[in-house]
């Protein structure tokens, strides 16, 4: 008979925390070569965890991806999870996703993640792509 008790995890994994931040964020910051954008209400997270952007047709971002010689554009997404009420430390988490933006069949852009990082008041951690909410290609 074993004397060791099985302890269930007390909260979400880091990958689940990242996915929650991505899914509930209304806005995000996007950096590409020579351009910084704040996108409000222009992204979604699919059931597979992939981030899809919906920039306006003819926007500088859309043109930048279309004119990219290799069909993709290096990009850095930054999202901040802020508490909805006034508390001392309102920032609950920061998520940074780096990768490549590629066009989809429609007018959308999909981020193929290369690196995912979660920062919380407890510290920062890199999320492995095998557990990442936004898998690579």
Which runs of at least 5 residues are low in confidence (pLDDT < 50)?
Answer: none
- Overall pLDDT level: 84
**How many DSSP-defined strands?**
8
Indicate the percent of residues in helices. 10-25%
What is the CATH architecture term? Roll
Structurally, how many domains make up the residues? Answer: 1
Q: Number of helix segments?
A: 2
Compact description:
By secondary structure, this protein is mainly beta. The chain is 13% helix and 42% strand.
Describe the 3D structure.
This protein is globular. Helix content is 13%, strand content 42%. 26% of the residues are buried. Strands 1, 2, 3, 4, 5, 6, 7 and 8 form an eight-stranded antiparallel beta sheet that branches. The protein has one domain (14-127): Electron Transport, Fmn-binding Protein, Chain A (Pnp Oxidase, Chain A, Roll), CATH 2.30.110.10. The chain has two helices and eight strands. It is mainly β and 137 residues long. Strand 6 and strand 7 (109-120) form a beta hairpin. The chain has helices at 14-24, 60-66; strands spanning 27-32, 35-40, 43-45, 51-53, 73-82, 91-103, 109-120, 123-127.
């Amino acid at each position: 008979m074993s004397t060791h008790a099985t302890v269930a995890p007390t909260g979400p994994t880091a990958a689940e925390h990242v996915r929650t931040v991505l899914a509930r964020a209304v806005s995000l910051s996007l950096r590409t070569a020579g351009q910084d954008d704040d996108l409000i209400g222009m992204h979604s997270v699919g059931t597979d965890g992939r981030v899809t952007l919906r920039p306006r047709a003819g926007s500088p971002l859309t043109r930048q991806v279309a004119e990219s010689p290799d069909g993709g554009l290096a990009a850095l997404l930054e999202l901040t999870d802020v508490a909805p009420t006034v508390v001392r430390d309102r920032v609950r988490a920061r998520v940074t996703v780096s990768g490549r933006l590629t066009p989809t069949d429609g007018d959308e852009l999909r981020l193929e993640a290369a690196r995912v990082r979660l920062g919380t008041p407890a510290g920062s951690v890199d999320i492995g792509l095998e557990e990442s909410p936004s898998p690579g290609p």
